[in-house]
User: Fold HTH gntR-type domain-containing protein from Domibacillus aminovorans.
Amino acid sequence: MKLVLSRKSHNSLSDQIVQQIAGRIQSSMLTGGEKLPSIRQLSVDAGISFLTVHKAYKKLEQAGMVKSIQGKGVYVERPAQKEAAENSFDWQLSIPAYLTRSSFHSRPKTTYSFDYSAMHSGLLPTIYLADQLTEMLKAEPAILGTYGDVQGDALTREAFSTYFQKQLGLSSAADDLIMTTGLHQGIELIAKTLIGPGDVVITEAPTYPGVLDILMNRGAQVIPIAMDEEGMRADLLAQVAKTYHPKAIYMNPTFQNPTGRSMSERRRKEVLYQAQLHGMFIIEDDSWSELYFDEKPPPKSIKAFDDEGRILFLKGFSKALAPGIRVGTIFAEGPFKKLLLSAKASSDLGTPLLTQRAVLPFLTSDRMMQHFAKLRFALELRRDKAISILSASFDSSVSWTVPEGGLNIWVTFPESVSTVELYEYCLRHDLSFLPGHVCYPYEPASHHLRLTYSLLSERDLEQGLHAFVSLANDFINNRLESGC
Amino acid sequence: MKLVLSRKSHNSLSDQIVQQIAGRIQSSMLTGGEKLPSIRQLSVDAGISFLTVHKAYKKLEQAGMVKSIQGKGVYVERPAQKEAAENSFDWQLSIPAYLTRSSFHSRPKTTYSFDYSAMHSGLLPTIYLADQLTEMLKAEPAILGTYGDVQGDALTREAFSTYFQKQLGLSSAADDLIMTTGLHQGIELIAKTLIGPGDVVITEAPTYPGVLDILMNRGAQVIPIAMDEEGMRADLLAQVAKTYHPKAIYMNPTFQNPTGRSMSERRRKEVLYQAQLHGMFIIEDDSWSELYFDEKPPPKSIKAFDDEGRILFLKGFSKALAPGIRVGTIFAEGPFKKLLLSAKASSDLGTPLLTQRAVLPFLTSDRMMQHFAKLRFALELRRDKAISILSASFDSSVSWTVPEGGLNIWVTFPESVSTVELYEYCLRHDLSFLPGHVCYPYEPASHHLRLTYSLLSERDLEQGLHAFVSLANDFINNRLESGC
Assistant:
């Protein structure tokens, strides 16, 4: 056995022997029952004292890793582990981890990015926000030195509550709100509190990939339910609820991510009714109900019809306002709120006060509604542009949603077209979108994709869409020609 | 059966009947086998049509909640659930939740607060930070409009990495760092990735209560190991590691929270050695190694001796710098880092860019080291003041640690004294501390408490400590007199 020992190391020579032998046992280089070199032989080989080796073997024995058998020698005791060691960090690979699914991929950046549901910087009021924040820091630098409340800053909660009442028709008390670091964290806090191994949760199919990561990492069984023009199908929901006794439904009823579809008011009530009937929570994700293109706003949130605390209502303004700030809230009524507060405390002790106060001036000013009006206009133009290019470029085998708000279009190709392969193809041409399979939990459909029309400048959007339809048509035609 | 029906409701009359009956079944007001009123009787009682009631009963039957038996009537089908309904939110109480333990209590605020491990605002560089942040916003308002990277802002990671190298002797690459919302979130991300039901994790006894919440909410078995003057006892660690095969050790070796004790360098190496021997991670929480009172700094972090990615090293500056900002980092090497990134993405998609950039000017300026020098001086004075008042006021039955850095003193009373009761007593006199039992996982010792000497002004600290020793002595004497 060749050991690499150093007299200059922090560790004693005998500890170095122990580590190296233990490492070999852990990495299966030495397996159970194998005989170690004798103490005398190892001390000669390594040029160290008999006593040093003796001490090391004694320690290995005390740790239960080897066994000394009188008159025979020293044998490896512990059954070998799975992974073979390649480098010094590889022991980590043999440790079981709990994240079964994640949407975290460091996706390559492209010139024509249709894959991130975010806003082009020209559409955001960053200079106004920066001015307001500067004023605030001048007047009250102490906010930097103050721990935020776990539930969230009282002033910011008041402002959200007022906004909810005025703009969304929701009668929320400031005390019913918990501030979060982005809306996404709100989903995570709810899941951490409510969902555990084997619990059943219903989602729309397709759904926001982030929620699938969260639910599946909690060990949940996710049942995706198909949508029609009005949103999640109520007949399927009733059936699933009766059979599987789900704990919750996650939904994004208004301008849904990824499809851009909105749920009808009738369907919203039916979903609430099923939740009441079967004792479920509804996790209602309202990311962008302000961003409607019709003259009149979308239907009221499901929360507006809830008087039993069935709905855990989530709101965030990161995307539409300031992605560098990331403030969201959970509106929760009833005793469950206290558990959510525990989950928040256990997660990060509370959202930073600075970011909460940074959105406050905006929330309480007219500027907010003017900003949304501007966004609605700009996004509608972009949607129209996108739809007109798709319509002019694809034959009837390709279809898409025409969203009445939000940031995304859901494109459906014939079942034989893999958007995962199309994605790889487009990446090589400096263009990206979200392959649709990540929006399904177990047996994903892979002939859809999500196009976000909000991230690029108007010029890049137009050029990028022309590039996209041309790449997609090339890809489909090449497949046909090669007989796939 | 008295139903409250409204023709003005969003819901149809038959849905209202369904909800109210379903609610009674779920809340045990109606139990399995119970007979519902006949359709005719209910329609007469409630003054509504026969058909409406019929429709409601049909729906309840479809939902599997009641059963209609030909010629006999309609019976409650579902076995009753546990909790009785008191108001419309009480159905929530019957839903099993997953948070088994939490340190979130909205503790009452007192004049003499010794319970929060935080810094008096006069000790913080808030005005300097506010100025720097203002400059930055003026130069680059776009940071408000930019999504932070999931791993964290590259510039901020560079700055942390440089700080680690210069000040802590840690050779970290910026790519090995993951930015978090406070150090606490770092622990949570590690736990979410590594720890699941039944996994064994070792902590010091006593330990930081927040880590117990996190671990126990993940379903871990926490084994607390007693400390001596050098820190966690290595002999007990070896024994526990051999018997229970823990996945990780959480420790706060330098100026430990809550005891204020520091682990010797020899012990640090022994702990690392045990981790190597038994294939464990060490979660090393370095909240305040900068805040030492001796002339020379404390021993190097365990991470400094680690070349296998055994140590997940956590650093945060919220307490010592700006609690309103809350930025921390995990220094992790090896393949495990990628899993941590997934956990971060799944938790909140990344720490806000604003808060990361807000600490950046400080991290890269000399101001930082000047600030720490000032803090060391101020905290040492406070510690001395606290120790002198304790020494002058308690007899030998009460003892305490004399921390060589950090914010906390750990006070030990005779075993017969309950610091939970003492806490209640002090609260009535407008004074608070942290009762020690929250620092143990299962069978807490309840004769300790933690006093934080950093939160109050110098004047309040002195007055508060005099009040504390006087209250504690009164409490103990009253107990003796009443023969408890």
The first strand of chain A starts at residue 66 and ends at 69.
